[in-house]
């Protein structure tokens, strides 16, 4: 099986937020969808080990912010690369809040939801929820998982090919090192060079 086929599913990208007591938390998810229109219900799927999941299990409420194509990579790092168990993901932010008191962030829309059912799916929980409040914030295009990988997530740096002089650290960028090469800085021969 080629797991890359999963990347062709048209996922969106969202910030899922929750509040328990005075603690705000949030995480990036890619599974948020409308289930019915009357009554208006949605679902999300979240890893059981996620701190935000634990908060939603306790409070039964969450918000969703629909991220846009101009969302910065810093936002993805803040909400996707650290755990709320030991990080204040809202440090330095002054988010807006919906009527339920839960934060939402900059995006093109937000939804405030009340859980009516949780379905255990092994590693994840699916929360089925009623939408209590929703608003369009702007008309910027929504970010998809595909767009994120192609345009927002930094590309891995290609490792340079070449050789470094162990005497003066001069770097020759080349596929091969000629046997008679002389370092232009310290004048040592090819024997002083090591591959990068």
Strand and helix layout:
Elements: E1 14-20, E2 23-29, E3 32-37, E4 40-47, H1 51-59, E5 61-66, H2 73-80, E6 96-97, E7 103-104, E8 109-121, E9 124-136, H3 145-152, E10 163-165, E11 171-172, E12 193-195
Antiparallel strand pairs: 1-2, 1-5, 3-4, 4-9, 5-8, 6-7, 8-9, 10-11, 10-12
Top keywords for this entry?
196 residues, mainly beta, Pnp Oxidase, Chain A, Rubrerythrin, domain 2, 2 domains, seven-stranded antiparallel β-sheet, three-stranded antiparallel β-sheet, 3 helices, 13% helix
Q: Quick summary of this structure?
A:
13% of the residues lie in helices and 37% in strands. The protein is mainly beta and 196 residues long.
What does the model show?
This protein is mostly beta strands. The chain folds into 2 domains: 3-152, Electron Transport, Fmn-binding Protein, Chain A (Pnp Oxidase, Chain A, Roll); 158-196, Rubrerythrin, domain 2 (Single Sheet). Helices cover 13% and strands 37% of the residues. The strands form 3 sheets. A 7-stranded antiparallel beta sheet has the order 2-1-5-8-9-4-3. The longest helix is centred in the first third of the chain and has 9 residues, at 51-59. The radius of gyration is 24 Å and the shape is elongated.
> Strand share of the residues?
35-45%
Quick one: CATH class of the largest domain?
A: Mainly Beta
Which runs of at least 5 residues are low in confidence (pLDDT < 50)?
A: none
Q: So what's the overall shape? A: elongated
Order of helices and strands: EEEEHEHEEEEHEEE
Full CATH superfamily name of the largest domain: Electron Transport, Fmn-binding Protein, Chain A
């Amino acid at each position: 099986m080629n797991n890359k086929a999963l990347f062709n599913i048209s996922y969106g990208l969202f910030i899922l937020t929750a509040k328990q007591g005075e603690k705000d938390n949030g995480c990036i998810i890619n599974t948020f969808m409308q289930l019915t229109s009357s009554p208006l219900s949605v679902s999300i799927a979240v890893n059981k080990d996620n701190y935000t999941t634990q908060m939603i299990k306790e409070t039964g409420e969450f918000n969703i912010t629909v991220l846009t194509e101009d969302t910065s990579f810093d936002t993805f790092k803040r909400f996707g690369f650290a755990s709320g168990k030991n990080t204040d993901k809202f440090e330095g932010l002054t988010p807006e809040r919906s009527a339920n008191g839960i934060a939402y962030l900059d995006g093109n829309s937000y939804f405030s939801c009340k859980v009516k059912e949780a379905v255990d799916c092994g590693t994840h929980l699916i929360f089925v929820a009623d939408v209590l409040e929703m608003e369009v914030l702007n008309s910027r295009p929504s970010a998809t998982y595909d767009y994120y990988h192609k345009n927002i997530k930094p590309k891995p740096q290609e490792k340079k090919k070449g050789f470094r002089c162990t005497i003066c650290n001069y770097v020759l960028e080349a596929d091969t090192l000629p046997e008679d090469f002389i370092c232009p800085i310290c004048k040592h021969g090819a024997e002083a060079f090591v591959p990068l």
